[in-house]
Amino acid sequence: MDAARTKRKLGVTFTSDMEDDAAWESQERAKQKEKPEGGRKNKVLEYVALATVPVVLVLGNSMLVPILPTMQRELGISKFQSSLVISLFSVAAAIIIPIAGYLSDRFSRKAVILPALVLYGGAGILAGFGAVWHSYPTLIAARALQGIGAAGTAPIAMALVGDLYKDGKESQALGLIEASNGSGKVVSPILGSLLALWVWYAAFFAFPVFCLLSLLAMIFLIKEPERTAEPKPIKEYIRSVKNIFAKNGRWLLSSFFSGSLALFILFGVLFFLSNVLEKPPYSINGVWKGLVLAIPLFGMVATAYITGTVIRKNGVLIRWLMNIGLVLMVVSLALAIWLNKNLYVFIGLLTLSSIGTGFLLPCLNTMITGAVEKSERGMITSLYSSLRFFGVAFGPPLFGWMMGISHQTVFITVSCLSLIALGLVFFLVKPGKQVQ
């Protein structure tokens, strides 16, 4: 009897100890899940650091949009020459981005991003002195150097997001990147207009300050995951990229075109508004012009952030939102062919188009980033970003050329292009129920 009672006691004690151990292990696993992966910093701080990179990139172009008419007068240059201040920056970036993408795949993301931010800021100082000296060649050369620096910023940050996060966190972070990109576009016209109240070329000297802040954030707040695999030889790497396009080329190229077109329209419209608002009957200048330019951009920012938060990896939702976004762009830009005289209606239509862009871009980012393995992600996202930069580059000069024909020509062209993009996305871009 005593032996049985003792066994029961020992059994109870042993079982209780096992339950305590299991509970302790469960708590420890929960704590480990709460900790940032690989000893990384708090995810909120990571998000902030990553968000600074696209903001800095956007400031490099959007902050100059309000001062382009003033630059024309101060330097005695044409509308086309002033548009090159934005276009040459974007063309240089577009050409270098694939190289930066390859280097980030071969070495590391931060090994490309950090020197790029240094070059970006340093060339900003040179551009500022070119404006002070009224030297258009110096200014243009410095803008080309800035474009080379820009190639290693936001496009590589997009690949870094894919390395750091998985599943819903990845789409949320990519949505934040796109929203940060858009937030920079919202703030930039206002900030550029405010700086111009002091002296018109002050915006050029503001770039290095923002670059320094982003540089420090990336150094101290981002811990890049360690790479276990050896980088592929160049021939094997190129073959892998070719295989990706052989397998997914139709929807990738359609996505690339749509993303590039969205930025082409966005920056073209900004250039259009910047020139139109200063003339009668509007005669809107300074900070007020910056505020008006920010209205459509704010619509895009809010939509992009919400879209990135809710889509996660839901392929069905992604497809719906991409098509809805393009429909909004087609309809609003088509209506702007006739309804561009009343400023309130016109800005409302452009805001509706920007909301469509806010639906489209985070969905494209999530699909393209998730389409490839980590070893080729830098190149694919860089090719996508390169085409987006070409869209930014050709927007202002082509809009300026079309404005010389008529305002109706501008919106007939972009509404037709948006319709083509809608057709491509509707028929060729069909993600599965769950995006990789």
Mean residue pLDDT? 81
Question: What is the total domain count?
Answer: 1
Portion in helices: over 70%
Query: Quick one: overall form?
Result: globular
- Unreliably modeled segments: 6-39
Task: Give a written overview of the molecule.
Helix 2 packs antiparallel against helix 9 (202-221) and helix 13 packs antiparallel against helix 14. With 436 residues, this protein is mainly α. Mean pLDDT is 81; it is low at 6-39. The chain has a single domain, classed as Up-down Bundle (Growth Hormone, Chain: A), CATH 1.20.1250.20. The protein is built from 15 helices and no strands.
Provide a short characterization of the protein structure.
With 436 residues, the chain is mainly α. The protein has helices at residues 2-34, 43-62, 68-75, 79-106, 109-132, 136-150, 154-164, 167-198, 202-221, 234-276, 286-311, 315-335, 343-370, 374-405, 407-428. The chain has a single domain, classed as Up-down Bundle (Growth Hormone, Chain: A), CATH 1.20.1250.20.
Highlighted features:
Growth Hormone, Chain: A, 436 residues, 83% helix, globular, mainly alpha, single chain
Secondary structure elements and their pairing?
Blueprint: H1 2-34, H2 43-62, H3 68-75, H4 79-106, H5 109-132, H6 136-150, H7 154-164, H8 167-198, H9 202-221, H10 234-276, H11 286-311, H12 315-335, H13 343-370, H14 374-405, H15 407-428
Helix pairs in contact: 2-7, 2-8, 2-9, 3-4, 4-5, 4-6, 4-14, 5-6, 5-7, 5-9, 7-8, 7-14, 8-11, 8-13, 10-13, 10-14, 10-15, 11-13, 12-13, 12-15, 13-14, 14-15
